[in-house]
Input
Amino acid sequence: MQAALHDRKIQLALLLLPGVGYLLLFFGGPLVSALIGSLRLDDGSFTLQWYERIFTRVTMLRGLQTSIYYGVAPVIVSLLVSIPLALLIRQNFRGRKLFNGLYKLPMAVPGIIVALMVIIMAERGGFIDRVIAPFGVSMPKLVRDEWGIGVILATVWKQIPFMTLIITSAFAGIPEDIRHAARSLGASRLNTFAFVEVPLAMPGITAALLLTFIGSMGSYAIPDIVGSPSPRPLSVLMLFEFGEGRFAQVYAMGMVLSLFAVVVLLAYYALTANIGVNRTKGDE
Amino acid sequence: MSELEISNITKDYGATRALHPVSINVEQGEFVTILGPSGCGKSTLLRILMGIARPSAGEIRLAGTRIDPLPPEARDIAMVFQSYALFPHMSVGKNLSFGLRMKNVPKPERARRIEHALEICNLMGLVERMPRQLSGGQQQRVALARAIVMQPRLLLFDEPLSNLDAKLRDTLRQELVDLHRRIGTTSIYVTHDQAEAMAMSDRIVVMDGGRVVETGTPLDLYRAPTRAFTAGFLGQTNLLTADADGARARLPWGQLVTLSAPAKGIARVSVRPETIAIRQDEMGAGTVTSVSFMGANALYTVGIDEMTLKVSQAGGESLIAAGSRVSLDFNGALHLLKDRDLPEAA
Output
């Protein structure tokens, strides 16, 4: 026992145990058990049928497409709002402090509340509809519509603060001198932004994209409440399968969703490996 | 008409005034250093010249054209930053071509200018490197090349050597001087390092508290400063008062000296340590309180009549021990200052 403790390799293993052990137990464990569960029939024999169903059944395939759509579309809209917002926050204007505090508020609101809020506000016969009715206008169908506008609205509302927060700090991390250098070399504000600031903020921007994409692709409450009844995303279908007691199917769907998230993550690493991560710091 | 005319530029931040009316003229091809301690307004002035800060009043003309209302990109000015400010996501070559592309310089011309800049800045073979793969000295050379490739009317330097170690600083300082001699671009160099200012400049503008204190060649400012601040900031000095009557004056301990200009009553003088001769003398008025042997010279502090004087003696055969009685000889006329009040000896 004493001798074993003096062994360098054993020492290392013991020291790493709290960190690596935790990861293995609480992340690796469930993942592996889900993977095994997704490959089993009730009698315990091996099968790929649960995966086969995902890629052959129409509801499942459309569910996968919808999941990706619900993941990508809100992220694009959020990005288009967040970048200008991040630039606005950088400026000095009256009420900046108040705005700075307020815009983060949606982060604290649970998805289910946001979904219900969108229904109350934007559904036909909802709040906005009744306000504009006297003017002879009525709301287009925004909730449970086939384009998932309601889902996009609700998700965007929740994503923008988070994305803006990350992007703001990405821009703030660019040394002022670099901006000034670009200007003195003849670049207008716009060119400085496009050729210097955006590339340098890219690691932050892509991180924000990635995190919001994974969140919105896997979200359940919003698509279930304001999403179109058909097609439904995998997350919603998963709960349905769970209700039917087909756990192996639920595992398989979960694996497929996770696989997508991992692919996006790897793409992120590949994209950011070469840009702006290493900042010039001079000699210190 | 001067190449650069800075006329009555002021800068207020709220109620605090960072620059009192400042006027400086720079001739074409001149290398002018703005020297002063931190907070003296030199950086503010540089930011205004560059166009990233707006002056509160006054005007700036470059080659006769008023530039103070123009944005930075419309001025024919390039700047070398203390932090180098290279674009970290661009190779050396891309860093150099950035400005030229922004100003729509045609490609063959671009290539020619970049080639030239790389050569004179000693950067051949580094075109493909990313800034993070370069040493501090190389990065600063790239920053310099990036500025001169623009062939600007005016080059600005914001303490470009202060992030480098002492040895590299000396090398690059000499390279900068040589470079300026070769390309002859009108240059303004901001620093708080008096040695740098004296070694490099055609002319030095000394600033303090948002004001120009004094302007002159390094030699004039060192030998004949008119302000105690200049005397104290450019090298070491002894600031004394003397009771003047014409060209003759009496130092507080009774010694009679000659003044550089006639005065009446209490006169302020600056005496460089190396202009004082020290001599061991049992009857002398001073006492050596400490000796530092520096190699080429010895630096003595001498207590005399409740004052402390710095004396530098070069080429002495032997050192005078601390505690010895000494007498001081002032060779030549003592330099008269124009200040009304004498600050504490610097």
